[in-house]
Amino acid sequence: MSLKKIRIKLNGKEEFLPDGKILKEYLEERNLLKQYYAVAVNETFIPKSEYNNVVLKDQDEVEVLAPMQGG
Amino acid sequence: MLKIADHKFSSRLLLGTARYPSPEILKQAILISGAEIITVSLRRESPEKHGGARFWEFIRPLQKTILPNTAGCRSVKEAVTTAHLSREIFQTNWIKLEVIGDDYTLQPDTGALIEAARILNQEGFEVLPFTTDDLVVADKLLQVGCRVLMPWGSPIGSGQGLNNLWALKTMRQRFPESTLIIDAGLGRPSQACLAMELGFDAVLVNTAVAKAAGPVLMAEAFAAGVKAGRAAHEAGMIAAQEMAQASTPVLGMPFWSRTRTTT
Q: Looking at residue B147, what is its pLDDT?
């Protein structure tokens, strides 16, 4: 992993990460690796089985969603 | 029995889970209504609060059939991605598909809705599309594989009831074999009763129960309205007549003579 920083968004909020961060590791660090959460990167669904295969890039937009009330 | 896809349900009342004063009142409303299907949504989770996990842990023990929605989606891509996310979280291929086209009326973008339905049906989802009362749109949704349609009665949360009776009656007559569920805009149990009298298979209610002064009692009232309407539909109601038809037999009426006339 290089020392270069990338800028991403998590649920709309900007964050800076080391370049080359793996999605699974990122979610673990933020306590967002839970059974009832689901993740999309750049509006594309990422299955849990693929978290280890996704390397976050500059300008990526990560959405972590959970069950909520709905009509 | 209500038939949705390959499943049968005793209750013809579906309940939304939003806008209740508290989780406990939501739970009581669900239980007293007898609803077997409840709708849920997905929203961004806060790493600090984990509110979504708490909601799910509260809802799961009720053991209801979960119908996730794509509420708030405004494009085909958003709706399809939300459906994928929902399938992973809720472990169901059912999806109440909403693609909204107008911020004020929350009217569906029917073009995007049809395209999203086509994609999701091909991917194996059981798509329950929230649509308008437009007959042509309904036909296209069926053509792209939907087995259930959810036409609105009126705008979401408006409580206006069934705004376009002619259109809804026409839809029911045109698609006698499809499962049709009135979704959105119901405000009173009498409106739900009317929907059932018209032959619709079920209704989905949220705001009318959640925002009632007494949500639990209102849930019970809606359940009664739905049952009454369905029973009336199955019993076969009389058709309205232009003029009076005496219900008491004329034969043997006292004080009657042939010279007696009415003006």
A: 96
